[in-house]
């Protein structure tokens, strides 16, 4: 520890009234200036002395402030002693701990002393309190003696009582303002603490959400991998069943019953194959692996190909399928196979959810730079609450407890995904349960230099 020499007194002032508190502040600033401290440190030293002098007056009804000049090691130092004969400071440690978050003036003064001075020693008890403050003089300041400081200060007049009284009034206003600011600061500190707690909770929620998202993504990936594996595993048995059904039909000695069973097996295998293909497509779309090969396609040809595929199913239910195709090509840039799949899915749903003898219509037209295709039926219709979710995966148009038709709820989800890959849109509408349904597809029209084709309009039953 640096060697410390006995300090030499400069000035001692009694504190018996508010004016003495203000005078102590003035003297502290004057002494700090003569010691070579800059304006910033002068203000700090004056503030500390003023606050501690005020504490002595307010809590001990008086005291004194003594200024001295000493040496610590090779540095000169200004020593300020503030003491009183009051009852002492009870629970000093707790007061200092709360000083930063409370507007208790005694605590604030002690806190300022510990922050602004190089050392602050506090001794308190029933016989009074003694506070010793030390501030090392700036390295660049010239050496000065206590005698010189005392002589210089003797030539500096203190403000008159009138000036001190006015300063006291202003000081009181500043003190009140400081208390109000401190109270506001306490509120801001509390708000900041609550915000930190809220932020911590938000961060924890984000962490949990990220974990849940990662878990869901992993589960979705595993589901897609399982669907892909399941679809491939089902292909083998289905191919064998289809071959067996074909051999039964081709057997010259087969009975009528055997041939009928062969045809039944063949239809069910075809249905299963379509489900397997839908599962594979769902898996590919979910993983972004599905690909389409775009080329100029006349949607009239696509419609005819899709109708040809579904006609046997419509004929078995005695349904009438009516087409209305435009005379000119309705060309789009797309994958013909996938577009046949889209229209086939819509027609297949219409057949499935329309009763025997029902009516299904398909119309195609050019409208506002797009090819507009509509599939409509007079079947069981769709409940209004199901419309917004109709194109979701695994969504069925009828409750599971009332299901009368097959399917996994994949067809419309595939339709939406494939149409989107072609830059188009698909919507569904229904006037209610039992009143049929309509599906509208819009695809960007591709302008082709081709001769108009003959008008096509046909009705099949």
UniProtKB/TrEMBL annotation:
- What GO molecular function annotations does the UniProt record carry, in alphabetical order? phosphorelay sensor kinase activity
What sequence ranges are listed for the domain Histidine kinase? 229-447
InterPro entries from the xrefs? Answer: HATPase_C_sf, HATPase_dom, His_kinase_dom, HisK_dim/P_dom, HisK_dim/P_sf, Sig_transdc_His_kin-like_C
Q: What is its main location?
A: membrane
Q: Which domain of life is it from?
A: Bacteria
PROSITE patterns named in the record: HIS_KIN (PS50109)
Alphabetized UniProt keyword annotations: Coiled coil, Kinase, Phosphoprotein, Transferase
- Name the membrane topology term: Multi-pass membrane protein
| Catalyzed chemical reaction(s) | ATP + protein L-histidine = ADP + protein N-phospho-L-histidine
Query: What do the Gene Ontology cellular component annotations say?
Result: plasma membrane
What Enzyme Commission number(s) apply to this enzyme? 2.7.13.3
Ranges in coiled-coil conformation? 164-222
Any idea where this protein resides?
Cell inner membrane
The record, for PANTHER family, names: HYBRID SIGNAL TRANSDUCTION HISTIDINE KINASE C (PTHR43547:SF2), TWO-COMPONENT HISTIDINE KINASE (PTHR43547)
Record-given protein name: histidine kinase
What's the source species for this entry? Massilia yuzhufengensis
Organism phylogeny: Bacteria, Pseudomonadati, Pseudomonadota, Betaproteobacteria, Burkholderiales
């Amino acid at each position: 520890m640096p060697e410390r020499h006995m300090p030499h007194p400069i000035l001692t002032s009694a504190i018996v009234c508010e004016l003495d508190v203000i005078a102590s502040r003035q003297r502290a600033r004057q002494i700090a200036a003569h010691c070579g401290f800059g304006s910033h440190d002068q203000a700090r030293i004056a503030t500390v002395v003023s606050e501690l002098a005020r504490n002595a007056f307010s809590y001990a009804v008086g005291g004194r402030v003594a200024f001295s000049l000493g040496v610590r090691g090779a540095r000169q130092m200004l020593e300020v002693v503030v003491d009183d004969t009051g009852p002492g400071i009870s629970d000093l440690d707790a007061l200092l701990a709360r000083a930063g978050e409370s507007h208790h003036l005694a605590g604030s003064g002690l806190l300022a002393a510990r922050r602004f001075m190089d050392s602050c020693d506090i001794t308190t008890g029933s016989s009074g309190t003694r506070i010793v403050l030390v501030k090392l003089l700036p390295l660049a300041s010239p050496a000065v003696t206590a005698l010189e400081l005392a002589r210089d200060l003797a030539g500096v007049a203190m403000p008159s009582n009138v000036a001190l009284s006015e300063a006291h009034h202003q000081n009181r206003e500043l003190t009140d303002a400081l208390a109000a600011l401190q109270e506001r600061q306490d509120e801001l500190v509390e708000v900041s603490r609550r915000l930190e707690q809220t932020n911590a909770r938000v961060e924890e929620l984000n962490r949990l959400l990220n974990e849940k998202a990662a878990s869901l993504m992993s589960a979705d990936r595993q589901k897609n991998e399982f669907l892909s594996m399941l679809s491939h595993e089902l292909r083998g048995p289905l191919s064998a069943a289809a071959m067996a059904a074909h051999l039964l039909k081709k057997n010259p000695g087969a009975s009528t019953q055997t041939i009928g069973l062969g045809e039944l097996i063949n239809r069910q295998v075809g249905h299963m194959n379509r489900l397997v293909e839908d599962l594979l497509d769902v898996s590919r779309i979910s993983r972004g692996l599905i690909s389409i090969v775009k080329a100029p396609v006349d949607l009239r040809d696509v419609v005819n190909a899709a109708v040809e595929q579904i006609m046997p199913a419509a004929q078995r239910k005695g349904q009438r399928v009516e087409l209305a195709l435009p005379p000119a090509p309705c060309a789009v840039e797309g994958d013909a196979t996938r577009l046949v799949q889209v229209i086939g899915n819509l027609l297949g749903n219409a057949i499935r959810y329309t009763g025997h003898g029902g009516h299904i219509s398909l119309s195609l037209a050019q409208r506002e730079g797009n090819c507009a295709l509509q599939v409509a039926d007079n079947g069981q219709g769709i409940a209004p609450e199901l419309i917004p979710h109709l194109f979701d995966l695994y969504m069925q148009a009828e409750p599971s407890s009332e299901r009368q038709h097959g399917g996994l709820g994949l067809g419309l989800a595939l339709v939406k995904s494939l149409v989107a890959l072609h830059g188009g849109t698909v919507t569904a509408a229904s006037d209610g349960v039992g009143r049929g349904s309509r599906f509208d597809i819009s695809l960007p029209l591709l302008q082709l230099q081709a001769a108009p084709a003959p008008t096509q309009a046909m009705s099949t039953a």
